[in-house]
Specification:
The protein has 6 helices and 4 strands; from the N terminus they run βαβββααααα. With about 150 residues, the protein is mainly α. It is elongated. The structure holds zinc ion.
Length: about 150
């Protein structure tokens, strides 16, 4: 990954922003001509990290996200969340395919609860957790302070 110190600057091309972004300024005033690294706090681990100029250009100009958007998770927690999402996807697929046997499989339910619990500590709200808790009460302690999964 380049520019981890966030000191590099990248020119701003406002024409490449989404229409709603073009109506606002995001993190920059109208005189700003370059992105700069922005320091953020990770929602997952609480550590400070930098959203680099290069990443901002990609997010705002290529992915067309709104210019007020900033990452909620540091790179490490983002990778962790991607892994959890993949495992959750596999388990959700099994659930959809064979709900009856899956709901009887205590090990499966427990593992899925753990995955969902870990996801919720990274800010992903999974209503499935409530349902699983009914099937297998007490397997996992309630995750605290789950925040909505913002785009
Ligand atoms: Zn983190």
């Amino acid at each position: 990954m380049e520019d981890m110190d966030g000191k590099g600057k990248v020119p701003i091309d406002r024409g490449a922003w989404s229409p709603s972004s073009r109506r606002s300024l995001g993190h920059y005033d109208e005189h700003a001509t370059e992105y700069e690294g922005i320091r953020c706090r990770c929602y997952g681990c609480g550590l400070s990290f930098v959203c680099s100029a290069e990443e901002q250009r990609d997010v705002y100009e290529v992915q067309k996200r709104h210019v007020s958007w900033l990452p909620k998770l540091c790179p490490l927690c983002s990778a962790k969340l991607a892994d959890l999402r993949a495992r959750d996807g596999v388990m959700q697929a099994r659930w959809n395919r064979e709900k009856e046997s899956a709901s009887q499989d205590a090990a499966f339910v427990r593992e899925w609860q753990e995955v969902i619990g870990a996801m919720s500590t990274l800010g992903v709200d999974k209503s499935m957790a409530i349902h699983l808790k009914r099937l297998n009460p007490g397997a996992v302690t309630e995750p605290n302070g789950a925040a909505p999964d913002l785009p």
